[in-house]
Amino acid sequence: MNYVIRLATKKDMAGVLHLIKQLAIFEKAPNAVEITVEDLIEDGFGTLPKFTCFVAESSNTVLGIALVYMRYSTWKGEVLHLEDLIVSESMRGAGLGTALLDEVVKYGHGLGVKRISWEVIDWNENAITFYEKKGANVMRDWDVVQLNDKGIKKYIENIKSLNS
Asked: How many other CB atoms are there within 10 angstroms of residue 6's CB atom?
């Protein structure tokens, strides 16, 4: 199959969201996606873009994405964070994941970053094997830490009650 890897446009965001929802289903969190096409357009193409997205496209269909944004490491300085690398289930094994990751690494190199980082769910052995074969260090001794919106609100409530 012929495909092209390119920077995403506003018109691609419906396809990007479709793949994000596919990933959520794959990761057993089908109702976790709250973002909309409009959010993606505003956040990716507004006055202060929050991310850069590459797409793998064939026949005007988005078959894969790699969504990245800048972070800052107190140890390394600017680093590029790969939020998601998603390939449509029907296209896995066709080289799209490699082509998208290649584009991310070239992009990060061009920016002069000291590190490109991302997370992978611990039971996705296919992805882990893929990343390790590419030379990535899968750091199994680190845990992801998050506060979701409810956790943030509860945290703030606790701060307020302590300061009352």
From this structure: 12
13-26 and 37-45 helices, crossing angle to 10°:
120
DSSP state of 124: -
Q: Per residue in 124-153, pLDDT tens?
A: 999 999 999 999 999 999 888 999 989 999
The single-letter DSSP state of residue 95 is S
Out of 69, 107, 131, 155, pick the active-site residue: 131
Residue ranges and CATH numbers for the domains of the chain are 4-118 (3.40.630.30)
69 is known as an active-site residue: no
pTM for the whole structure: 0.91
Residues 6+ apart with CB under 8 A from 23: 84, 86
